[in-house]
Amino acid sequence: MEKxxxxxxxxxxxxxxxAAARIISLIENEAPEGKEILRVLYKESGRSYIxxxxxxxxxxxxxxxxxxxxxxxxxxxxxxxxxxxxTSPFTGGALLxxxxxxxxxxxxxxxxxxxxxxxxxxxxxxxxxRDALVVLDAFGCDYILVETVGAGQSQVDVVKVADTxxxxxxxxxxxxxxxxxxxxxxxxxxxxxxxxxxGDADQVVRxxxxxxxxxxxxxxxxxxxxxxxxxxxxxxxxxxxxxxRHRSFLVNSGHLDPLxxxxxxxxxxxxxxxxxxxxxxxxxRMDGVLEEVYSRQLDPLSAAExxxxxxxxQAGSAGRK
Amino acid sequence: MEKxxxxxxxxxxxxxxxAAARIISLIENEAPEGKEILRVLYKESGRSYIxxxxxxxxxxxxxxxxxxxxxxxxxxxxxxxxxxxxTSPFTGGALLxxxxxxxxxxxxxxxxxxxxxxxxxxxxxxxxxRDALVVLDAFGCDYILVETVGAGQSQVDVVKVADTxxxxxxxxxxxxxxxxxxxxxxxxxxxxxxxxxxGDADQVVRxxxxxxxxxxxxxxxxxxxxxxxxxxxxxxxxxxxxxxRHRSFLVNSGHLDPLxxxxxxxxxxxxxxxxxxxxxxxxxRMDGVLEEVYSRQLDPLSAAExxxxxxxxQAGSAGRK
Lengths: 321, 321
Fold this sequence. Notes:
Oligomer: homodimer
Helix content of chain A: 40-55%
Shape of chain A: globular
Largest interface: A-B, 82 and 83 residues
Order of helices and strands of chain A: HHHEHEHHEHEHEHEHEHHHHH
Radius of gyration of chain A: 22 Å
Strand order of the largest sheet of chain A: 3-2-4-1-5-6-7
Number of domains of chain A: 3
Largest sheet of chain A: 7 strands, parallel
Distance between the termini of chain A: 52 Å
CATH architecture of the largest domain in chain A: 3-Layer(aba) Sandwich
Number of strands of chain A: 7
């Protein structure tokens, strides 16, 4: 087992995409070897810049990602892509179809592309996807693009991993207003109006700009709104320039380190919760308590306090009156 | 303090809406009295049937809820409404405006309406909103309607509290397809195509039906698709009939108890996590560990394992290799 890990790490460090893919699969399958390798690779990571690309289905995110990867390659960067597909049975096929377009890129040794399942039916980022970023980082990627289908959880989750969040929309989708309503706009560092050759793209741009003037995600950064026609590469240069400008801004203004530290802190807390949760599921006798609560002899909060008391002896008492 | 609680509970039990409102405010403000009262009221709850009403902004959920409440009153039910507004500054006003339409209902002693803030910018259900359901349940409501703006988290959360989930859409919104893609359709027990006098409502109905035939939320229940024109009350009778049919189905098929128990179990686990999280924030010295992780001397998983070991002495070792 240890030998297999060593062999795999050796190949990985020699730049083998096959080895990288295998490591990510081990992590996806929750194999103990995956966890082991991840501990090692984490210490070799930290140089990648992570760009989240999100927006509603049909906004052309895959095509835009594709174009962006090509341009990044042209500028000499090593690039990783993690595309998060929702696990919904209705979309699996379509998204895999999208990914096929990228096949010419997969032959490029400087590009690593991986589609990964989402967590839950609303498309949140799985732990495996987050761990894959560490692998690609240690693999030497200058940029890692995380593409998520924008609906619900994955849009919140993309903020947890990305240094720059690109929010993609299209004219005539009718939900530009909805996006604003749901507060989704607050997560974007750069806005893209893709398929700008259709409908009234300028109107969408003006609309987005008018909202952006009223809010601030990061002090000192007014998110630019960029028009693209991704399938023929229009505006992609401007988009990459904007990404690099945002990156420089974060570095020069001293925002990047605190941002990354905050993300890391939240990740550690989430991991702690997850470990405790696993323990809870395994060790705590829930059934008796559940019956008591269901029959209204006990309320849920008191039940939770008692359970916490069971796993952390002195904690229960603090919670009680 | 104790006297204030007793007085408030007395008024509440006499059916005072003012007392109910005050109790919910105490809970919202996280006052210790609110928690105390909740423990008492939980034991008096358990008779309400909870209907979640969700869907995209602009689908006319408020108007539909309004119409449904009136019809429920007509059928002699006592009704509670919890409307969850997203906290986004862009929408607060508009949604409050919607609620004003309900003012004639607020004079009815058999109707209790409360707007509550959402959790986070994507509109998740706050703990206060979930606790308010217990208060309205103990208040003697036969039905409680939970109206959430459908985008992201609140749609996931509505499943955590509702016995029947009504998913509202409208023709021409262009995101019927998106809804399906995001897997949102999987949460609905009843589908409503509102504003059915506009656009091609029948096409939306057929589209929804074709998808519904391919999936099952609950074995033995094919979600009906109902056309409504809520502002003039059309289709609302059919909607309420469908809600009652779904309720009978859940009761007669033996699904309701396991469903509610599962929800309760998840609630208790969430509460446990929340208590532990609060403890973690308060007691654990995170900064040293964070610096170690940020400088790549330690990986996040090992850091989390060490932290768990600090709060649960014997747990850390189990997680380590």
